[in-house]
Design a protein that fits this description.
Blueprint (H helix, E strand, L loop, with lengths): L8 E5 L14 E5 L13 E6 L21 H15 L10 H10 L16 H12 L3 E6 L4 H17 L4 E5 L6 E9 L2 E7 L10 H6 L3 E5 L9 E6 L7
Antiparallel strand pairs: 1-2, 3-6, 4-9, 5-6, 5-9, 6-7, 7-8
Length: about 240
Amino acid sequence: MDEKVGASEERIDWGGSGAEEGKIAHQIQSLLKNIHSGLPNPPSDPVKCSQIKGDYLYFHYGCDGCDDRGWGCGYRTIQTMASWLCLSRTQRRPAPSLPEIQQALVTMGDKPGSFSGSREWIGTFEASLVLDYFYDVPCKLVHVRGGGVELEKVAVEELHQHFEKHGSPVMMGGDRDNSSKGILGVWTGEKGSYLLVVDPHYYGCELERSELQRRGWVAWKRVSSLDQSSFYNLCMPQTATKGI
């Protein structure tokens, strides 16, 4: 069965206010839903496993016709998180476009006017502002001082608690490891923990879910494989407080 048919995809209209004039043409793009579905579990028996609840769309570099390679990963992760919020509500507000995200940050006073139309990257703090601005959802920001033991103890436990209570996707980024990534779940076994990572850095034609999984664009990654010398920040939408 074609994984890009029916309930597995969503069509996003990027015309009107969602298109950056002169750069993004009016178009409709199909985005895959729930790309982690069917992914094999980590190769260890779980002591504890917590994952997102509900549906999301996979946003990645260039999915709206804008070539944002090298700077847009934070925006794409925000869009993936926003799609979960959109699909979890009866009043649906589509994920904001890149120009809309930038303009919102300018309107809130977080960025200067020159930020609109720029290629400046954003992180977890900006993600918390954007999700609250468009969806009235506050976010918990967690700072993990370093890799290794800090990630295994602090981040893993925070993620277990988050998915059990809120069930929403999480954004993760750092300093040395400054590539934004979405976190969809956490798996703790006797020999360590794994994070279910959705990577927004894919650029190219839409692939089937199985191919995205085969190429590692969504994968269970050992916590110990992350940069041990980097600090990490987590942006966790507090959806349970808003009755989602």
